[in-house]
Amino acid sequence: MASLSGPVVVKIGGSTLGEHDTSLSDCAELQRAGEQVVIVHGGGAAVTDWQRRLGAESAWVDGLRSTTPESLEVVVAVLAGLINKELTRGLQQRGAAALGLSGVDGGTLRSPVSSRIGLVGEEPRCEPAALRSLLDAGLLPVLSPVGLSDDGSTMLNINADAAAGAVALALGAQALLFLTDVPQVLDDEGRGIACLTAAAQDQLTDAGVIAGGMLPKLRAGRLAAACGANVRIVDGREPQIVRQALDGAAVGTALI
Prior knowledge:
This protein is of the alpha/beta class and 256 residues long. It has helices at 23-32, 44-53, 69-93, 129-136, 160-171, 198-206, 214-226, 241-246, and strands at residues 8-12, 37-41, 60-61, 64-65, 98-102, 109-111, 120-121, 125-126, 140-144, 146-149, 155-158, 175-180, 195-196, 230-235, 253-255. It has a single domain (8-255), classed as Acetylglutamate kinase-like (Carbamate kinase), CATH 3.40.1160.10. Helix content is 36%, strand content 22%.
């Protein structure tokens, strides 16, 4: 693969979080080859599991987790702690110079506080200074989607897809890859879509075909695509999917 002309942002989510597939190895290989890679991760299943263990309920609105002050403590502990450090460890084990951080660190992620679903940042923006410093130092940042309110007075739960989009925009990323656990975005007849236009996306969303957790991926991806990034939603369970997508293979769903 030819050298890339800009950073690559990889959003890791779905059921595996990179532990039982090749996505961490793919990213580590890219980083060892001198490419600039940023991983933004989710961990919603683990958060839900820990909330259940602690007797807290999970509620969702348009694919976003409603977050109370009590549940925010679980979100921060699981995402910025357990998941972030497990992924960082896994990358280091594969030879990457990885460093884990949250959106709180360096004020990297900020957002207005949601008016409808609690302590959530629905419209995050990224201050990329800390990420750029890490990339320039030859490190692979692993970013958890916990950020700050605009005034810095409280931590917020930020959807990882929205966070990845904000990071890609701020860094001027060449590519933004959403690794999930489905092969493609589906149309109204259940067929996979290889290339999704903005008009088709709006039509399928209005019809309720695109819903749930796919909504924030497509919203964030569309913003990055409009600024020139190569955006794809791909199946993170498929071997070497990161390399395939960056090599131009017709995998997943491309936003055009």
